[in-house]
Amino acid sequence: MSICDNIKEIQQRITDAAKKCGRNPSDIKLIAVTKTKPIEDLKEAFKCGMTEFGENRPQELAAKYPEFADTDVNWHLIGQLQKNKVKYIIDKAQLIHSVDSYELALEINKRAKAIGKVQDILIQINISGEESKSGVSPDEAEALCRKISELENIKIKGLMTISVRGLDYQGNKEIFSRLAMLSKKLMGCNIPNAEFSELSMGMTNDFEAAIEAGSTMIRVGTAIFGARDYMI
Ligand SMILES: *Cc1c(COP(=O)(O)O)cnc(C)c1O
Question: Left, alpha or beta for 226 (phi > 0: left; psi -120 to 50: alpha)?
Answer without folding.
Answer: left
